[in-house]
Amino acid sequence: MNNWFLLYSTKNMVEASILQGMLEENQIPVHVLNKLDSSYPVIGDIELYVPIHLKEIAQALIQKGLLN
User: Fold this and answer.
1) CATH 3.30.70.1530 fits 4-67, yes or no
2) Which of 12, 17, 38, 48 has its CA 20 to 30 A from that of 66?
3) Which one-letter DSSP state was computed for residue 36?
4) What's the pLDDT tens digit per position in 6-56?
5) How many CA atoms lie within 13 Å of 54's alpha carbon, on the beta-carbon side?
6) What's the rounded Cα separation, in Å, for the pair 17 and 32?
């Protein structure tokens, strides 16, 4: 994933899904990598990656989304 930027990391699947949907609605491709341990969900994270050339736009959308 050399051309992808780690945009956001969370332990909450609902939050990750909402952010993924918001980014995709704005035509930003998203890769979701679920690193949560299935036995111990407090271990690991869900990571959202976007193409590196869209990182500034995605960061602005995330900031705007989290402020609402």
Assistant:
1) yes
2) 38
3) -
4) 999 999 999 999 999 999 999 999 999 999 877 886 789 999 999 999 999
5) 17
6) 9
